[in-house]
Amino acid sequence: MKNYIVMDLEWNQGSPLTENPNIPFEIVEIGAVKLDENKNIVDTFDSYVRPQVYHKMNVMTQKVIHLDMEDLEKAEIFPIVMRKFLAWCGEDYIFCTWGNLDLVELQTNMRYYGLDPLSDGPLKYLDIQKLFSIVYSDGRSRRALETAVDFMHIEKNDMFHQADSDAYYTALIMQQMNRPDVESFYSLDVFHLPKDAEHEVHAKFDTYSKYISREFETKADAMKDAEVYVFRCFECGKKIKKQMQWFSLNSKNYYCAGKCEEHGAMRGKLRVKKTENGKVYIVKTVRSATKEDIDELVKKERKSKVQAAKLAAMEQRMRRNRSGRKKKLF
Length: 330
Ligand SMILES: [Zn+2]
Description:
The protein starts with a strand and ends with a helix. It has 330 residues and is α+β, with helices and mostly antiparallel strands.
């Protein structure tokens, strides 16, 4: 039986002088609500964490989270709280969070203390803030938790920005969204990238597909990889004929268009992402395209060709100037 673990964290941070780059945000509270597969609340978890890095409450943080150092100093340290928390989570569960930050900070703190990783690759979770936007808004905007609580007429009996109450509010929102297909809108946390080609992510969603590559040394290496540049129909996965090659206007995002015989016009986007250690990985999405989408891409591609031509001409001029100077020496 699978549980939903709705989790919320509070964290403290240092000042520019005291910040430790290995743990810029130190978790000081873990709050969570456990829901069963029918989304009934079955248990709660709440624990402060005794700080080991930042022993002074950051001024900005203090304004938001209403926690005193004194309370925290009585708590247990992160590795112990984390062990208890994971035991409480059980065997089969999916994390649910408001936004995409909590899992990043959780795993950064775990790594700092040398704890076993949560997963050996991208981790499936539900971003309730994103789901709220998909169900009630445009899917792109992101609202504050309190805004969503007001929108759903949930009683506000507890203060916000406390891990236990924020987790509880988030759990109520999830319950009341009442979407049986809620899990089809899952997110992927990439704190741990796919460790090799075999473990790369090929996820299919309702309206698009998503590919997450392993880590490459350089962007050039990534762009040479067949699985990176292949263009497949998001619906049937068949290789489709490209109407244009991948092109870019800023060398971070690449675009492409083509047509599946069966499923029509498609557009692809390839994002080059940097890892913490300066390497790169690729996130590729493919979705259906309207005629307007394709026209737009054709225009953009033309622009990228003009850009490339200008750059080539400039380089040639520079080369000529250099060789010109050399000649004068003799
Ligand atoms: Zn197809």
